[in-house]
Amino acid sequence: MDQQDLPIRRVAIDTWRENVAYLHRECPVVRAAGFQALSKVTVRVGDGQINAVLNVVDDEQVVRVCELGLSEDAFARLGAADGALGAVAPAVEAASMPALRRRIAGERLARDDWHAVVRDIAQARYSKIELAAFIVAATGYELDREEVLYLTEAMIAAGRRLDWQRHVRGGPVVDKHCIGGIPGNRTSMLVVPIVAAHGMLCPKTSSRAITSPAGTADTMEVLADVELPLARLEQIVRDTNGCLAWGGSADLSPADDILISVERPLGIDSPGQMVASILSKKIAAGSTHLVLDIPVGPTAKVRSMQAALRLRKLFEYVADRLGLVLDVVISDGLQPVGRGIGPVLEARDVMAVLRNDPAAPSDLREKALRLAGRVIEFDADVRGGGGWRIARDILESGRALAKMEAIIDAQGRRAPPALGGLTHEVRAERAGRVLAIDNLQLARIARLAGAPQVAGAGVDLLRKVGDAVEPGAPLYRLYAQYPADLAFALARAELASGYVLGDMAAPCAA
């Protein structure tokens, strides 16, 4: 055996979108090459190769002295058999690293620089440390609008791109998206079946939650499979006119999914990266027309109308240059939409609206109808202003529910998991009226309860803005699966419930 040829061992560690290699400290390769922990290495098996970050271990139960361990991500990406011989060598620096260093120093990057950076990210040539540096650099020195355009173009070019024109014969391929930040705002799961029932093609791909207790993909996964191979996703859309899938499994804008894996723990969602992330996914999915929801409120992602208008202009600039027809809706982000916060609770609200349940959250229903109406108005045969009525008729007739059931069956129906078995009600300390609800605080509490990793965890709102409460009245109910999660959520709720109560005559937040 050559000094650098080592049998590969699959190490059952989930490193979440990062290739990690493991070598024992006494391995001759470590000594010969002078490897240190966090060195970047290239692993080759036959014609395949990957770049990885090296972890040096001292326990032979992880890897033996003359073995090369690979994390789950690295093993899957390399595609080698367990026990195959692999060569490990120092990695050559990613070609785009000089451009990254210039961006860290505050320099503006050209189109070719952005394409090089994103290409290296998509091909897993950046470590998590380097990705974090990229994200912070792009946030600390805000991207100008041309850089956002170049980043969006590069993210589209790095992955697959769907083309639905042979199915729509020149008609629009539509989608709806929200920038996020408002708990419970699961309007996409209502818009898609309404629009698809109208006969429009709506291939909805979504990311998983970044900093929220649930994303559309997390919530849809309660009801159906969302990790769909590209061929299956295309067939589902052809058969049903729509889908509600996770974009990562279809390899659409793959660099975005890698960046999200770092943005999530950092809690960063900068305007430039937000625009590039959303528009690259929509264009890669083949959408030609998009309704974009920007909620505005004191605890939303966008806090003022002025900031919303700036963001709208940036979205419109990039969309226009990439040939995407965009309709931006600036909406009320003063409080959560619906009642549930967390995958199972939000799926419950969605299905209640689709079933025309009288107890379904009226705010979720009305917002979804407004947005679905705007999407339907992309239909050349629908007059402006007529979309809302068509959307309402589709919902009330049961056609939207039938379409949703068809999409669920096509994607692969799942039995919804149970709500967390541990509960606690957070109660009002005084009488009064609910003046405001803090979106950020309620999202934190729901995440501490376990959402979205625990689908049945979260917060069920029992009072909304404007409601009168008596002392001791329940404001919301916590659901958790594990005692530690419930304790964390309760500790946060005791610091601040997220509810602002005032006198009955006091005005609500505006």
Please describe what this structure looks like:
The protein is an alpha/beta fold and 510 residues long. The protein has three domains: 86 residues, Barwin-like endoglucanases; 247 residues, Nucleoside phosphorylase/phosphoribosyltransferase catalytic domain (Pyrimidine Nucleoside Phosphorylase, Chain A, domain 2, 3-Layer(aba) Sandwich); 81 residues, Pyrimidine nucleoside phosphorylase-like, C-terminal domain (Aldehyde Oxidoreductase, domain 3, Alpha-Beta Complex), CATH 3.90.1170.30. The chain is 41% helix and 19% strand. It has 19 helices and 18 strands. A six-stranded mixed barrel has the order 1-5-2-4-3-6. It has a four-stranded antiparallel sheet with strand order 12-15-17-13. Strand 10, helix 13 and strand 11 form a beta-alpha-beta unit. Helix 4 packs across helix 11 and helix 8 packs across helix 16. The model has no long low-confidence stretch (mean pLDDT 93).
CATH topology of the largest domain, by name, is: Pyrimidine Nucleoside Phosphorylase, Chain A, domain 2
Taking all residues together, what is the mean pLDDT? 93
Order of strands, widest sheet: 1-5-2-4-3-6
Give the total of domains: 3
Strand segment count: 18
The number of helices is: 19
Instruction: Flag low-confidence runs.
Output: none
GO molecular function, one term: 1,4-alpha-oligoglucan phosphorylase activity
EC number: 2.4.2.4
Family: Belongs to the thymidine/pyrimidine-nucleoside phosphorylase family. Type 2 subfamily.
Catalytic activity: thymidine + phosphate = 2-deoxy-alpha-D-ribose 1-phosphate + thymine
